[in-house]
Amino acid sequence: MSEKERELRSSGDHEGGYVEWFREASPYIHRFRGETFILVLEGALLQEGRMPALAHDIALLSSFGIRLVLVFGASPQIDATFLTHALPTTRSGGRRITPPEALGPLMESVGRIRFEIEAALSQGTDGTPMAGARLRAVSGNFVIGRPLGVIDGVDYLYTGTVRRIESEGIRHHLDQGDVVLLPPMGFSPTGEIFNILSFEVASRAAVALGASKILLLGKSPELRNERGEALRQMVLSEAKLRDQPASRPLAVLFEALEQGVPRLHLLDGSQDGAILLELFTRDGIGTLISRDPFEHIRKATLDDLVDILAIIRPLEAKGVLVRRPRERIEMELEHFIVTCRDRTVIGCVELIPSPESSMAEMACLAILPEYQGEGRGEQLLAFCRSEAKRRGLSRIFVLTTQSSRWFMERGFVKTGPEILPKERRTPYDPDRKSQVLLTEI
Ligand SMILES: CC(C)(COP(=O)(O)OP(=O)(O)OC[C@H]1O[C@@H](n2cnc3c(N)ncnc32)[C@H](O)[C@@H]1OP(=O)(O)O)[C@@H](O)C(=O)NCCC(=O)NCCS
Questions:
Q1: Ligand 1: which of 379, 403, 408 to mutate, most ligand atoms within 8 Å of CB?
Q2: For residue 379, what are the CA distances in angstroms to 132, 259, 275, 292, 367?
Q3: Given the CA of residue 402, which atom of ligand 1 is nearest to it?
Q4: Number of domains observed in the structure of the chain
Q5: Are 391 and 249 within one domain?
Q6: DSSP conformation letters of 44-92
Q7: Shared domain check, 233 and 277
Q8: Which residues are paired to 68 by β-bridges?
Q9: How far, in Å, CA of 198 to CA of 203, rounded?
Q10: In angstroms, rounded to a whole number, what is the distance separating the alpha carbons of residues 5 and 192?
Q11: Band of the pLDDT at 1, cuts 50, 70, 90?
Q12: Same-domain status, 275 and 337
């Protein structure tokens, strides 16, 4: 053990961090079990020799019960093989033109990558992260292709497009726990071979298999804003505006989202552990493009109970919120509203209507500390206002000991306990000295 490792192991911080990370990761581990992910490995990344390290993370995903389909690109490798065979590389509209004499070198490049991936997935020496992994990778004629044909007067020859994905065959292997490899090729019923864009294979396979995610591992594939900063999350419509169709065929992957695949993650595959950091931490490290909004406010369900308790218990311990038994929160869950980020609850509020007094009480307003100060509290308040209005109520009140300023800056005014509705279940506790604040809506 190195000096550094010893130091880290002996430090409580390190152990605490490790345990905390594991706990943060566990909801994702449970959630992803049985889901199908399409991993797209760009040829440029494989050319850098990243596969052995990536294989460790792929093995871990598979051991968590995630059904994996690996689609790989081979563009730079094909270019290099063409060069050694003195074949010119001709492209039109961003697509390679594949003449018949190029098929041999093409199979040579793609075949070599396939074997390299299979070799990397076969690692399992004791003392390595893949010890005992026993991954089985399978490949086959799962992509049925047809020629792209002549477009704008250009004949693409053996460059093809996907005609259909043999999803039943792939599913059969995924059911056995196999990792399915899909090369950037397709086969026709007449026995011909076509070179197909890996993104198209991935997109069509994701739709055909009902995948829940496509993860693109490339070299800096993230989308960026005007200042060149990487953008972390966006919805599909925004991502479409950000993408430069001429330089990258991401549009093909966007089609999968339009056809029902919920999420596309763009990751810099040269970063060690990129897949794990993206999938098992709340904020991830890449660009997440979702078909639906990433963060939203909605009514709570029973599944949110644990998350709600995790948010409010520390505040109860500090005396910021009044302590309530779990059973009471469970009974009142129908009144809770939550802010969800990537399916995890990061904020909550309870809105209890008192129709006889035409009022609603707002309680338990809380946002996880790491997400405070970005307007989420205000958004929950706005949601409560419109929800109360929708129910025909005209005022909202709140009891608070430490946040009266926050409410007053948002239109609440101080009043007294005498305004509290008769039907309110909990009597006012004079010892707590809560301030009663009221706002018209
Ligand atoms: C109060 C709370 C819900 C606000 O959520 P939020 O998402 O951080 O709120 P917003 O981003 O909309 O507002 C942030 C602003 O409120 C201010 N603020 C936060 N807590 C405050 C408090 N207790 N009193 C006064 N101002 C406060 C912040 O300083 C920030 O001000 P700035 O914009 O001038 O920097 C959040 O801070 C929280 O969970 N606090 C602990 C629980 C709590 O006190 N709940 C209310 C009890 S009923």
A1: 403
A2: 49, 31, 32, 18, 11
A3: 23
A4: 2
A5: no
A6: HHHHTT-HHHHHHHHHHHHHTT-EEEEEE--HHHHHHHHHHTT----EE
A7: yes
A8: 37
A9: 9
A10: 55
A11: very low
A12: no
CATH code of residue 35: 3.40.1160.10
Q: Cβ(69)–Cβ(172) under 8 Å?
A: no
Among 249, 268, 293, residue at a domain's last position: 293
Residue 226 pLDDT > 70 = yes
Q: Which of 308, 372, 379, 396 to mutate to test the pocket of ligand 1 (most atoms within 8 A of CB)?
A: 372
Domain end position, chosen among 237, 266, 293 = 293
Residue type, 98: T
What is the pTM (predicted TM-score) of this model?
0.69
Determine the Cα–Cα distance for residues 386 and 324; give it in Å rounded to an integer: 26
Look at residue 143 and tell me if it is in a domain. yes
More confident residue, 342 or 181: 181
**Which residues span the domain enclosing 130?**
10-293
Q: Token pair of 230, please? A: 């990487």
**Could you tell me if 278 and 351 lie in one domain?**
no
- Give the Cα separation of 332 and 330 in Å (integer): 5
Three-class secondary structure of residue 219 per DSSP: coil
Ligand 1 — pocket residues by CB below 6 A? 315, 320, 365-367, 372-378, 398, 400, 402-403, 405-406
